[in-house]
Amino acid sequence: MSPLPDGWMHGAFMQIYVRGYKDSDGDGKGDLKGLISQLDYLQDLGVQGLWLMPVTQSEDRDHGYAVKDYRSIEVDYGSQADMALLLAQAHQRGMGVILDHVINHASSRHPLFLNSASAKLNPQRNYFVWQDTLPLGWSVWGQNPWYSSGNGYFYAPFWSGMPDFNWKNEQVKSFHHDNLRYWLNQGVDGFRFDAVGNLVENGPMAWESQPENHAIMGQVQDLIKSYDKRYMVCEAPAAPQAFGAKASCGSALAFDLKDNILRAARGDATAIAAVSQYFRSAPAGMATFLANHDSFAGERIWNQLSGNQAQYKMAAATYLLLPGTPFIYYGEEIGMANGAGLTGDWALRTPMSWTAQATGFTSGVPFRALSANISSNHVQAQRGVEGSLHSVYKTLIGLRKRLPSLARGDYSAAWSQGASMGFQRSLGTERTMVLYNYGLVAQNVNLSGLGAASVWAAEYPVASDLMVTASGTASLNLPPQSVMVYLQRN
Prior knowledge:
The protein contains 14 helices and 20 strands. It is globular, with a radius of gyration of 23 Å. It is α/β, with parallel strands linked by helices and 490 residues long. It has a 7-stranded parallel beta sheet. It has a 6-stranded antiparallel beta sheet with strand order 13-14-15-20-17-18. The protein has a 3-stranded antiparallel beta sheet with strand order 6-8-7, with no helix packed on it. Helix 8 (255-265) packs across helix 11 (309-321). Helices cover 27% and strands 20% of the residues. Strand 7 (146-148) and strand 8 (153-155) form a beta hairpin.
């Protein structure tokens, strides 16, 4: 049985790149013991879940998605004993831990692929996608995804070092299900599944979001749900809501929402309207976020918003109070910038800014350049400081924890008007209302459907109660670039 409280997976998650989080042994690389040393920090912030980017042994020994061994911890990060200690310590703090599971592909140095490539008649040949002659007419993200091995051509759309599994082979399903059971039996609380839109290929024009993918992930969901209080979330940028459906993954990262949130934070009325309407039709299990470890998803939020802290706080307040499970990318809560002098994915995967110097991360030499704004944006400078990004995140996460309707309530009465929008969340008898003004000037809004002569108490920030007329209406002046949260008292 899971030691975690019911509904833990509705709390805020922190996405953690272990190599970049905290170094415990001075080798310049983050590790599991380093992460364990910061669990109190994460608990204080209000985090209830950790998503660990790949921590198993990989060919690249960095981003981790070229997996060589699905059951062994990357030696730079520690040992199985360290993972067990992390799980125990996280659980003591009421936090779940989910692992990144690379379900679509493996390393070209994985034993299964080495066997598969060794001969056309090898018993494990069919674990991967092979053709005897070069297939024609293929272009995946502008590139030919087929590579020669000497014994045929294998399919590897991400790059030649990560060949795709053949999910039309039942043995592949058994292989992955067994690995999932292994970690679930170790006490892991679930998984983030990488690239689920690319599992099955049905031809040069049908290689993404195929119908079979949903059946595959539905079976994975059944497996995970057979364990107590487990959670899974999928990455499918091309079709997030389809994979977020109950019959598929049941939860998926909302790639189709994040950009509109950032545009809304800048005051874009069209984006504000789109954000207000998103959860009227999207699956409730969508996982909200602003940015992550992949450059295709955008730069660090600090860079995308050019360091505008007012807009940054509005973006945070938007996705942390909407339905779904919010995922915070490590360092987002202090406004970490891209790595100094770095480009692409590496600019997003830099050492955590604990202090103004590298010594906050490691006693040795950091494995990669530090965040470009580490001198000003670091935990030591922001923690406990009123009005800081860190304090805003902590307060908003605390609101979600204190008011269950904000964490897992329904979504109704959504509206938008120019630079402002609002909605209501309800769970049982608890009813909350969230109002935003993204504009640079105050805006008066007329609210309706609030309950005749009801009283709404201001929960955030400190403000007067909202008094409603006998007809269920109220008028309110929203300050510029502000968010207000009210709780119905009667």
